[in-house]
Amino acid sequence: NAGVTQTPKFQVLKTGQSMTLQCAQDMNHNSMYWYRQDPGMGLRLIYYSASEGTTDKGEVPNGYNVSRLNKREFSLRLESAAPSQTSVYFCASGGQGDEQYFGPGTRLTVT
Amino acid sequence: GQSLEQPSEVTAVEGAIVQINCTYQTSGFYGLSWYQQHDGGAPTFLSYNALDGLEETGRFSSFLSRSDSYGYLLLQELQMKDSASYFCAVRDHNTDKLIFGTGTRLQVFP
């Protein structure tokens, strides 16, 4: 039982490059989330998926797209990376109530 | 909308007790959650209060007062490993999404 896994752990991109962050959970949760975390800013929701086949924008969706590939997997895509997207990205899945389980994070630097 | 306020930093010594406060403004309220995050790590769920009162889980307790829109996390018998950031969170009534505070960094000194 791995919980929530994310790949890659670290990534450096040049401005304008694209990449996809992968996330998978093995807890049979319906809800999955993508957050970004910047110093002093807490966790901000980028996109959210309440169930397979549905996605919804969060607080900071601009510059990102998501795909809920199946119940287990929820990917985040940066089409044209910008330095403002330098951050730590966390994927999470939703358990009972407000309990969310987070992956280990992806540390992304855009130069 | 929703907003949460918590202190940015708290310091304490090993063995002491520390309280981290959280005040919130919401258009609707389900409950208050607390998460812990060590440097370089992922947030982990600590507790959830839907009703007024104190919930105790080992050395950690969480309190909620719905009438005051206020809650706190109480950490007792502090250990060095408790040095971490602590986030309170509420669910947005309109979007059903979790909104996190900006976090309180706790430093425990020997």
- Give the averaged pLDDT of chain A, no decimals: 94
Through-space gap between termini of chain A: 36 Å
How helix-rich are the residues of chain A, as a percent range? under 10%
Count the E strands of chain B: 11
> Main β-sheet of chain A, in a few words?
7 strands, mixed
Q: What is the helical fraction of chain B, as a range of percent?
A: under 10%
Describe the structure.
The complex is a heterodimer of chains A (111) and B (110). With 111 residues, chain A is mostly beta strands. Chain A is 0% helix and 52% strand. Chain A is built from no helices and eleven strands. Chain A has strands at 4-7, 10-13, 19-25, 32-38, 42-49, 56-57, 64-68, 74-78, 87-94, 100-102, 106-110. In chain A, strands 2, 4, 5, 6, 9, 10 and 11 form a seven-stranded mixed sheet that branches. A four-stranded antiparallel sheet of chain A has the order 1-3-8-7, with no helix packed on it. In chain A, a hairpin with a 3-residue loop joins β4 and β5 (42-49). Chain A is globular, with a radius of gyration of 13 Å. With 110 residues, chain B is mostly beta strands. Chain B has no helices and eleven strands. Chain B has strands at residues 3-5, 9-13, 18-25, 32-37, 44-49, 53-57, 60-65, 70-75, 84-91, 98-100, 104-109. In chain B, a hairpin with a 2-residue loop joins β6 and β7. Chain B is globular. The N and C termini of chain B lie far apart (41 Å). Classes of the chains: A mainly beta (111), B mainly beta (110). Chain A binds chain B through residues 33, 40-45, 48, 50, 56, 58, 90, 95, 97-105, and chain B through 8, 30-31, 33, 41-45, 48, 50, 87, 89, 91, 95-103.
